[in-house]
Write a structure and sequence with these properties.
The complex is a heterodimer of chains A (814) and B (140). Chain A is 46% helix and 23% strand. Chain A has 814 residues and is of the alpha+beta class. Chain A starts with a helix and ends with a strand. Chain B contains five helices and five strands. A five-stranded parallel β-sheet of chain B has the order 2-1-3-4-5. In chain B, helix 1 packs across helix 5. Classes of the chains: A alpha+beta (814), B alpha/beta (140).
């Protein structure tokens, strides 16, 4: 603008004569005005459009040549421009000439005539006036230009507004204070198929928008009224009919627009079709309502949500019911408290969250804790809560209390286990060797299944006493207080006396005086059973729990069954022990008696033999010392006394031998049978006259040497004893192997034994029918049989009366 | 020839046996005095008497009233005055246990009473020959 400013101050000077022109410029410069010299009209015409404050033209410069172009240039000035045209003339000398100049240039510019001769002051004042006017023109021009800019902007805004107004996705209308439609945009028209002409200039409620919606028609005036009174938009939901006849919904805002004085200018009605949004909202609301209803009415399911730290954020009434915590109590708390201490320690809550986050689902079957600590078994699942972008915000957990099912299932499992256990217990009872073993085994099995910590097993003893047979779960020191009870003393004694079960629940709170001991050993529940087999009291078996305050009915039934088993088992052991004790006592008694009998028989033998020998002695003394004074008859009697005494002595001696063979200690060894037989044959005087044939070699046998010598000597003794008088005894001895045993045969040529006697002769004091008292005591073969039996052998005889006998002995082979 | 000038002590409770022993000793020609104790206590009492009257030989039955023969023998072996006394056990017992215990208690001989008068006389002669003719007693 500064260059333009300068230009507006610039005076273009056209004077043909150089001096004059220079004078003019010089004069103007003197007052601060720049003068630019143009040498002719063409130059002036060329420079002038760039802008000038005034044109100073000497008359003589106005040549024909270029004048038209110059005038044309002047004529094409902008409307605002009326460039000052100062013409230096002498024409004032003739008025006519001056008039002509003015007429010529007046249509083209603001002409001022400056007379020659030039007076500097006139020139200066004329130029200053011209420039002043010119300056005003420029100012005006600038003003006008500015106004134009403003207008242009208004127009642009108007266009933009209209564009926006028409392209709005909202319905828009401008109503006059009277409700007449002044403007309306395209959208409502295209939506309804109504033309602008049907609407503009009409009262809004009378437009076809509401043609068959009388409520709307009636409502509009009131709503405009209330909008007119309100500083704020008045909102309403309206219906309208769409082009396809559907009644749709809009939400409308009516805004009253006032001028600065507060006077109502117009209303702006804006409305959006909210039919779809409403539908979506309704659907959403319905869905939310549905969810809310589900959340609130699902009582059997606990539904709750928690954030990533496990803090509860949502808690439905089902959760209140299942867990017992109210919503207020639960929200903000950590989910951990819903888990059992074991699961908390095992980090189950964290694992569940991790699993849900990783896999999208964490199934959950576990024991949970209710408010107050009671356990219940729940089945459910945890799912992650993700936002649109898949970011984890928390978790939703749904679970259900299936304690009843679980308990039923556990009960079935427990029943199965218990049946198995019962079978095990029954099985264990049979081989058990003591009452304590039974009780311990039972307790070991029961502990697995039942909350038992302690047992006491009393065994009933004589005089209505109980003895603590075994126990577990209390120290020996504690038990020392109750090792012996009389019937009626303490709980177990009372149970034994009354033969009734005694149950003490809530021991620690119990006021039962007899439960004092139970309290001191820390029990909470206790039950004592009498152990009965039919009517007989075997003892008592009691169980205590430190973890439970009472036993369930099932547990008690089960324990009762087990106790019946225990009673049977212990009764058996006690019976066996009694039996054993009785047998031992009887055996000891018998042994004492046997010992007494042995002593008796020993003393009998001694006492019997002493007088016998005395009898023999005196008979001999009498025969020797008084032979001459005795009659022959008397001497014969003395001999008879002697031989009788000898027989009696033999008898006693054999009885003693039998006793020794029957009861003496037997140690079996390998025996050289042949050597033994030869020793007996050589050493037995009675055999010296016999013909004895030993078939070598004899087998070695297993036996007791002393007993075997007794057998051989008795058998050989019999062989030479029982023989017809005229015969010489002939004995054949041989051995043979039969079924792994060695049979030793002794065949003689004696009188033989009739078949009916062959069995009898082996019994003590039994003799063959033809055996005289002088020949035998009837004990010899009994001794042999007893000796053979004690060596685990057999004895037998084959005999033909009149021809001889063959006795045999079978012994184990060495 | 009799090496012993002191009496012989017969410890025997049976009067018949005492009779037969005395007869057998006579038959065998034994001149030594035969003193008799009829139970264990009496035998010990007898042996507790002063040295001069001590027997040179004790013939000891095992089955005795009050104190048995083995107890008497044990007493003799523990009593310093008589511990080297010659003791011949004469008994009806053939029990091995009796025999072993008698020798354990250092009996000088173990003789089983013979059943006949004749055998008894033979035995008395053997005693006369061995113990009273050839044997030397301590303290003689």
């Amino acid at each position: 603008m500064s260059s333009q400013g300068n230009l507006t101050e610039r005076v273009l000077v056209l004077t043909p004569s150089g001096n004059d022109a220079e004078n003019v410029v010089q004069v103007l410069r003197g007052v601060g005005i720049t003068g630019t010299i143009c040498k002719d009209l063409a130059a002036l015409t060329a420079v002038y459009p760039a802008g000038a404050g005034a044109l100073l033209i000497a008359e003589e410069g106005l040549t024909r040549d270029g004048l038209d172009e110059f005038c044309q240039s002047l004529a094409s000035q902008p409307k605002w421009s009326d460039i000052p045209l100062l013409i230096i003339t002498r024409s004032t000398e003739t008025e006519e000439k001056g008039q002509e100049l003015l007429r010529y240039f007046a249509p083209h510019g603001n002409v001022t005539l400056v007379e020659r001769p030039l007076r500097p002051i006139s020139l200066i004042s004329a130029v200053q006036v011209a420039l002043r006017g010119r300056r005003k023109q420029y100012e005006l021009r600038r003003f006008v230009e500015q106004q134009g800019e403003t207008l242009r902007r208004v127009q642009e805004t108007e266009q933009r507004f209209r564009a926006i107004f028409n392209q709005q996705f909202q319905f828009m209308a401008i109503l006059s204070p009277e409700g007449v439609v002044m403007e309306i945009n395209e959208l409502p028209l295209s939506a309804t198929g109504i033309s602008r002409e049907q609407v503009l200039g009409k009262r809004f409620w009378e437009t076809p928008f509401w043609a068959d919606l009388p409520e709307m028609q009636a409502g509009w005036p009131k709503r405009l009224e209330s909008a007119a009174r309100s500083e704020r938009p008045v909102i309403s939901v309206d219906e309208y009919r769409s082009a396809d006849g559907e009644v749709r919904l809009t939400d409308a805002a009516i805004t009253a627009v006032r001028n600065v004085d507060g006077q109502l200018r117009f209303f702006i009605v804006q409305a959006s079709d909210i039919t779809d949004r409403k539908k979506a909202e309704d659907a959403l609301r319905f869905s939310e309502e549905q969810n809310r209803l589900i959340m609130e009415n699902v009582k059997d399911f606990a539904i709750f949500a928690f954030d990533r730290e496990g803090r509860i954020t949502v808690w439905n009434p089902g959760a209140e019911g299942v867990f017992g915590y109210s919503s207020d109590e639960a929200i903000g708390q950590k989910v951990d408290r819903l888990f059992t201490a074991e699961d908390q320690a095992a980090k189950a809550p964290q694992q569940e969250m991790e699993k849900a986050a990783d896999t999208g689902l964490a199934p959950d079957e576990r024991w949970h804790l209710r408010k107050g600590g009671k356990r219940f078994f729940a089945s459910g699942a945890t799912r992650p809560l993700l936002d649109d972008k898949g970011v984890l915000h928390g978790f939703l957990k749904v679970l259900r209390d299936i304690t009843e099912q679980k308990v039923a299932q556990l009960a079935i499992e427990s029943k199965t286990r218990r049946l198995q256990l019962l079978a095990d217990v029954a099985h264990a009872l049979l081989p058990a060797e003591s009452t304590a073993a039974i009780a311990r085994e039972i307790f070991r099995c029961l502990k697995v299944e039942l909350p038992l910590d302690v047992y006491f097993n009393y065994v009933a003893e004589a005089d209505e006493c109980l003895r603590l047979d075994s126990f577990e779960g209390v120290s020996a020191n504690e038990a020392s207080e109750v090792t012996h009870l009389t019937f009626g003393e303490r709980i177990c004694g009372t149970v034994a006396e009354q033969r009734k079960v005694w149950i003490v629940n809530h021991v620690q709170e119990s006021t039962e005086p007899l439960a004092e001991f139970l309290r001191t050993v820390g029990l909470r529940a206790y039950v004592s059973f009498p152990l009965l087999v039919e009517e007989k009291l075997v003892g008592t078996l009691s169980f205590g729990s430190r973890s439970e305050d009472q036993f369930s009915v099932e547990d008690l039934d089960y324990l009762r069954t087990i106790c019946n088993f225990a009673a049977l088992g212990q009764e058996r052991i006690l019976y066996e022990r009694n039996l054993e004790e009785t047998v031992q006592a009887r055996t000891a008694e018998l042994q004492t008696k046997i010992g007494e009998l042995e002593a008796f028989s020993y003393s009998v033998s001694h006492d019997l033999r002493a007088p016998l020998r005395a009898m023999q002695g005196y008979a001999q003394v009498l025969a020797e010392d008084y032979a001459e004074s005795l009659a022959p008859e008397a001497r014969e009697y003395l001999e008879r006394i002697g031989s009788s005494a000898e027989r009696l002595d033999n008898l006693v001696s054999d009885i003693l031998t039998y006793g020794r063979v029957a009861r003496g200690e037997i140690v079996k060894t390998g025996i050289d049978l042949e050597r033994l037989v030869r020793e007996v044959v050589d050493g037995y005087p009675a055999l010296q006259n016999a013909k004895i044939d030993i078939e070598s070699p004899l087998h070695r046998v297993i036996g007791h040497e002393g007993s075997l010598i007794q057998c051989i000597s008795n058998l050989l003794g019999n062989a030479v004893k029982f023989i017809p008088e005229a015969k010489t005894p002939e004995i054949r001895i041989w051995s043979e192997e039969l079924d792994g045993h060695i049979r030793i045969n002794f065949r003689d040529n004696g009188i033989g034994i009739p078949p009916q006697d062959q069995e009898r002769i082996f019994r003590i004091f039994e003799k063959g029918a033809h055996t005289t008292s002088s020949q035998g005591t009837g004990i010899g073969l009994a001794i042999v049989r007893k000796a053979v039996e004690r060596m685990d052998g057999r004895i037998g005889v084959e005999s033909t009366p009149g021809e001889g006998s063959c006795f045999w002995i079978e012994l184990a082979r060495a | 020839m009799n090496t012993c000038h002191r009496p012989i002590l017969l410890v025997e409770d049976n009067a018949d046996d005492i009779f037969f022993m005395k007869r057998a000793f006579r038959t065998a020609g034994i001149t030594a005095t035969l003193e008799v104790a009829t139970d264990g206590d009496e035998a010990i009492q007898h042996l507790s008497a002063p040295d001069a009257t001590q027997p040179c030989l004790v013939i000891l039955d095992l089955k005795l009233p009050k104190r048995g023969g083995l107890d008497v023998l044990r007493w003799i072996r523990h009593e310093s005055n008589v511990r080297s006394m010659v003791v011949i056990v004469l008994t009806t017992s053939k029990e091995t246990s009796d025999l072993e215990r008698a020798y354990e208690l250092r009996a000088n001989a173990y003789l089983v009473k013979p059943s006949g008068v004749g055998q008894l006389a033979e035995m008395a002669k053997a005693i006369q020959s061995f113990w009273l003719t050839h044997n030397h007693f301590p303290g003689e």
